[in-house]
Amino acid sequence: MHLVQVEQLDKGIPAILSIQSSQEKMLEKQDRMLEKQDVMISKQDQMLEKQDQMLRKQDLMIDTQKLTNKEIQTLRYELKTEMNERFNKIEHELQEVKNALHKHGIMA
Predict the structure, then answer these.
(1) pTM for the whole thing?
(2) Whether the Cβ atoms of residue 101 and residue 107 lie closer than 8 Å to each other
(3) Burial 48-71 (b: 16+ CB within 10 A, else e)
């Protein structure tokens, strides 16, 4: 019976060693995978930071566009007002010239 037990142990020990070796290889592969995942996470963090920078720049650009649009609207309003005032003045002066011509009989 002892001989059978020794034979069984003789068969079992290499199997256990093989399992242990396989587990060590698996753990090494898992460690490499975790290292690669850490690198990937780091790259994703960098990408997110760059996206955040881009969004801040876009926000700044939008604010600048809004300010530019407001300035353009203000300038258009001021120009329109100035032109209307000048045209009204010209019309008034032209009417005075017509009246003076008509008064002197130059214009019917």
Answers:
(1) 0.55
(2) yes
(3) eeeeeeeeeeeeeeeeeeeeeeee
Q: Are residues 108 and 102 in contact, defined by beta-carbon separation less than 8 angstroms?
A: yes
Amino acid at 29: K
The pLDDT value given to residue 1 = 83
- Separation CA 73–CA 81 (nearest Å): 12
HSE, side-chain direction, 13 A CA sphere, residue 10: 6
